[in-house]
What we know:
Arc Repressor Mutant, subunit A
Amino acid sequence: MQHERYDCNEGCPVEAALEIIGGKWKGMILYHLLTETLRFNELKRQMPEITQRMLTKQLRELEASGLVHREVYPQVPPKVEYSTTDYGKTLAPVIHALRAWGEAHLALLEAQNDEAQAAINTSIGT
């Protein structure tokens, strides 16, 4: 449930931002749309685990927030393209920072996994 006002404490701006871009898929959608305009199925192919219903819902919410633009072309069959708005593009540094942090986090997990595997190999004498 979105707040109408954010005046609770110093963390409220973070809460406000996460209400708009939070969740599993919105960041990924924005990431893919930052560099190019995509049709629905092209976007779906970039994220094969998202359901069509969820992608539609997330795109509608991002559009309602002013971050994504939906362009409908009057033709048969209908053609719909999605792109980031100028306002949505202001999130580029945030999205790129999240990607960099994610890469570092995955590298850390991989290193921890390698250490654990080496410990197991040592204990069983291989």
